[in-house]
Automatic annotation (TrEMBL):
The lineage of its organism: Bacteria, Pseudomonadati, Bacteroidota, Flavobacteriia, Flavobacteriales. Pathway: Amino-acid biosynthesis; L-lysine biosynthesis via DAP pathway; (S)-tetrahydrodipicolinate from L-aspartate: step 3/4. This is 4-hydroxy-tetrahydrodipicolinate synthase. The gene is dapA. Catalyzes the condensation of (S)-aspartate-beta-semialdehyde [(S)-ASA] and pyruvate to 4-hydroxy-tetrahydrodipicolinate (HTPA). Its main location: cytoplasm. Its EC number is 4.3.3.7. It is found in: Cytoplasm.
Amino acid sequence: MQELIGTGVALITPFHTDGTVDHTALEKLVDFQIENGIDYLVVMGTTGENVTLTVEDKQAVIATVKKANNKRLPLVIGIGGNDTKVVVDQIKNTDLSDFAAVLSVSPAYNKPSQEGIYQHFKAVAQATDKPIIVYNVPGRTGSNISVNTIVRLAHDFENIVAIKEAAGDIVQAMKMIQYTPKEFLVISGDDMIALPMTLAGGAGVISVIGQAMAQDFSDMIRYALNGDVQEAYELHYKVAPSIDLIFEQGNPVGIKALLEQLGIGSSQVRLPLIDADQDLKDRLKAFLESYEQN
């Protein structure tokens, strides 16, 4: 799965001020990623506010991304949830022909046991021949996928090819890298530790900040994959302040406010999320002004 090594970005869904999808801004966002060195695109992820998109919205967003991308970069689609049968049915009934892989989040709210998590992803893997990226994000799901569970899944199912690991635990990530098969990809889902994870043997990142700071962040990961440590850390410390800022009031609240400063869409989000406050917007603007001078 060489297509999934490097920097992927979890695309936002831009909205007009009335809350409808801004397809023009979405096309501009896709072009911006391609022009600035991003390796692959992820649609229908958490950052895309997929939980507040209607079925019609989702279909329209996917169509816009596919058209704008025009097969230039690999695409990954997010299909997950906390009802295993619903997730399996959705995978079976979705045209996956244009996608390199399916990103599937561990069930949220139910808080299944490790065996429950294993059985959930067993059902997901058996629902399709497409490569599966397991998504571990305990800060949102309420349960962590253990190292042992991901090692089992990686060994037992050929099409479970990667994990997006967003527990924020570098020790856990390193153990996943150590104990999973050599070809299995451990992808960072945490922008702040994407660099050390990659240097430890990870496969890169599925990023939020990467879609705004696309050139420097994707270059940072390339340097890391090539073993150019000093160059990679120079870019990390250049970008790092923006990572703290964009997550301060939640995701994708901060990244949308930052992209607005770059002229890509508005900062509009859908309830229960609310727009970034003016103080955060001012600090993001100041960061960009300083960033562009360096």
